[in-house]
Amino acid sequence: MESPATADNSQPPLYAEQERMWRRLLSAPQVLQLARETRVGTTPADVVLTEGTHKLLRYRRETPASYAEPVLFCYALVNRAYILDLQPDKSVVQQYLKRGFEVYLIDWGVPTEADRSLTLEHYVAGFLERASSFILQQQGGERLHLLGYCMGGTMAALYTALCPERVSSLTLLAAPIDFEGQETLLNLWTGRRQFDVDAMIDAYGNCPAWFLQTCFLFMNPVANLIEKNIAFYEQMDNPRSMANFFALESWINDNIPVAGETFREFVKSLYQSNLLVKGELWLGGQRVDLGRISCPLLLLTAKNDHLIAPSSTEGIRPHVGTRDIASMEIGAGHVGLVVSGRAHQTFWPAATRWLGERSTSLGGGVERHPST
Fold first, then answer.
1. Quick one: DSSP state of residue 320?
2. Rounded to two decimals, what is the model's pTM?
3. Which of 92, 282, 293, 299 supports an S-S bond with 320, CB 3.0-4.6 Å?
4. Strands 71-74, 85-87: parallel, antiparallel or unpaired by DSSP?
């Protein structure tokens, strides 16, 4: 049977569409097989530190590292961290490995009912601090590069403000920092009048995974409930597209709860009170002063992000002490920022190049890469 690319252009449109319809339907067995076989998070890694549900992963390199400073990924407490290593050709982790960095990632794991009392201090001044210390001891260095995605970016900014001497550069990827704006439904839904977070956490203990999943779905219902299924049908005869679809769906539906007290604190102190940019947020008896962030800062945002408005990430600019600030924006959504083909063709090579230019080459000195 001819493919659409080789079919006779004189065919009536109805006949061509019927031909595609049958090809899609006949692809169903292969689609089901792909659904069973698609794997995610496949870059080889070793668990080098464990504490409760938390794990620190070190990704294996095939060649010696080019830079002295390692990269630590701090992911959010919502969903699973393997979105940063979704597939071999759509892996942010591999982008940094290929650039020549040692790469580590924090997998926060799944909080249990016993973890309901864990606070933001536990994550930032606790395991993130211990993971950083472990990496620096293992690498024999004094500073590392820190990259945080979404809520993980907020935590990375908190840590950098508390321990600026440990961080060589900070990359914030679609990270909420200034919570004043009302550009997204998330900001509207978490308002004091709309959302009683105390009642919810008192009732459930942890923030339930089903609650988070429902919120995310209904922030963009047309795309999530209608357009996605239409696109699935349209691409049933394209194995590559189907593999991408199942990989992303595995992650989207792999939801986890958030520790109750951390969720309560995040909503009340940040979304409802915006204490971070006001300079009024305290962790472990220490005020979080964004002005202490003096390292190079890279802000990565998505123009069509329906969860975190770019202005929220950019809102860190007037509060930090560094002048070395760069911004990169891509026409994608909150997830497309890390998994779209276009992002991995241009966006991430540029981001890793920026970091390479601010890193110490193991050959000596600070590396200055030519444009690639």
1. -
2. 0.83
3. 293
4. unpaired
The residue behind tokens 């004094």 is: 142
Condensed to tens digits (0 to 9), the pLDDT of residues 105-155 reads 999 999 999 999 999 999 999 999 999 999 999 999 999 999 999 999 999
Determine phi and psi for 152, rounding to 5 degrees.
Answer: -65, -30
- Listed in sequence order, the residues at least 6 apart from 290 whose beta carbon sits closer than 8 Å to its beta carbon are 157, 161, 276, 277, 279, 316, 319, 320
Q: Which sequence positions are flagged as catalytic?
A: 150, 305, 334
Q: Which of 207, 214, 209, 216 is nearest to 264 (CA)?
A: 207
3-state secondary structure of 70: coil
For residues 319 and 332, the answer to whether their CB atoms sit within 8 Å is no
Closest CA to 166 of 292, 60, 64: 292
Closest among 129, 131, 108 to 263, alpha carbons compared: 108
20 burial type by CB count under 10 A (0-12 exposed, 13-18 middle, 19+ buried): middle
State which amino acid sits at residue 53.
T
Alpha helix positions (H), 110-178: 120-121, 129-139, 151-162
- The one-letter code for the residue type at 76 is A
From 7, 127, 2, 4, select the one nearest 55 (Cα to Cα): 127
The residue type found at 284 is G
Task: Evaluate whether 197 touches 267 at the Cβ level (below 8 Å).
Answer: yes
From the centroid of its chain, how far is CA 209? 17
How far is residue 65's CA from residue 90's CA, in Å, rounded to a whole number?
21
Which tens digits make up the pLDDT trace of 144-200? Answer: 999 999 999 999 999 999 999 999 999 999 999 999 987 776 777 788 888 999 999
Contacts of 166 (CB under 8 A, 6+ apart): 132, 136, 142, 143, 144, 159, 160
Sign (positive or negative) of CA dihedral 351, 353, 357, 358? positive
Closest CA to 187 of 198, 200, 178, 196: 178
